[in-house]
Specification:
Blueprint (H helix, E strand, L loop, with lengths): L14 E2 L5 E5 L9 E2 L6 E2 L4 E4 L8 E2 L4 E10 L5 E9 L17 H10 L12 H5 L1 H4 L4 E5 L9 H8 L1 H14 L4 E7 L3 H10 L6 E6 L8 H9 L14 E5 H13 L5 E7 L7 E6 L4 H7 L7 E6 L6 E2 L13 E6 L14 H5 L6 H7 L5 H10 L10 H5 L6 H22 L1
Parallel strand pairs: 1-14, 9-10, 9-12, 10-11, 13-17
Antiparallel strand pairs: 2-8, 3-5, 4-7, 5-6, 7-8, 13-14, 15-16, 15-17
Helix pairs in contact: 5-8, 11-14, 12-14
Length: 433
Amino acid sequence: MHLPHLKGTAGKASVRMPAPETLTLLMAQHIGAPATPLVGVGDSVKAGQRIGECAGYVSSPVFSPVSGAVTKTEQVMLPSGRTCTALIIKNDGRYEISGDVKPPVVETLDDFISAVRDSGLVGLGGAGFPAHVKLEAKKKGPVDAVIINGAECEPYITSDTRTIYERRDELIAGIRAVQKFIEPGRIVFGLERSNGAAADRLEADIADIPGISVCRLPSSYPQGGEKILIYNTIGRTVPEGGLPADVGVIVLNITSLAHIGRYLHTGMPLIEKCITVDGTAVREPKNIIAPIGTPINELIEFAGGLSKPAGKVLLGGPMMGTAIYDMSYPVTKTTNGITVLASEPEREMLPCIRCGSCVAHCPMGLTPTAINASMDIGDPAERAAALSSLSVGLCIECGCCSYVCPSSRPLVQTNRLAKAYLREYSSRTAGLK
């Protein structure tokens, strides 16, 4: 699909906002097991201190962005409907840095993977998959390509673009670390052609580093989808149910790469994010560097507040973003944008007219109409068989189907429910065996 880009903040330098008086640190900011709290009410903390530990292989530690004290713990409902533990930290304003913050000693691949885990890095493009688990692919088989995702195909969001302009040295350091320890045959940066100025800047910065190239991708959505990015940069197809490692590839977000470079040099873990605050209701759209745990309402206030009544506030962009239910919900590791859309009349959902627009625009070649119909099958086994035959697991939840539907049907939401149903059904039937 060709969406309006609306990248009005691409040329605006990011601005650092003051740390708020109170921060909410969720223990579930990533795919996998939530972190286990290491501190409790009354404990003092310092900036960069580990306050949540990995609770399993697919997990990630959490760190305090400020110095202060834990005032309470509470259960916070995530936009997905699940709940997780959160630590509420009162900022003392002194920004005392933890003594544990120091550059790691990295001499081997194991050291490198451990350092990435200890940095708290997860996929910063939105998915939140722990980065050290991705890098483990190097130990399980050959990795001949690392693809750096800078496509940033969602409307409004430009925080990755600002990484190219503002974090050159950290990007270079991250590149050299990946080359040294992952030893890929090539590193390919994927950027959309519409972002030509940033691509030019990046090409100039990496000109003297061998084995690296910039691939200028068609300016179409969802160009930044992992499987689509792999196919459009190096021509490989990730099979259904497979991972990039299955085709010898590791994919990293461009800001993730910069964080690796920063952590190896400073030892400061992931405690802040650059976030694009934009949308039809934002008075002064801008890129803001804010501590993780900052309430969304304070972020919006720093962007001048609202010029119109908000109809929807999204974590992320208007296509794949998740609506929040409470403006005090905090910034997390995966927050790369806050999109505030002005209130509009709600469109009525109508019956499907079988126009085929959702099929024509699905980047994965699926049939959302058939998936939607299969969810109405009463027999659980028949429903599961129908959904499996329709390869619903390939859905990347990009939202193209819902966007083009003239009947305003919630197709991407139904696909998401269908995938959840298949997972639950498979788990239940496996238990019976």
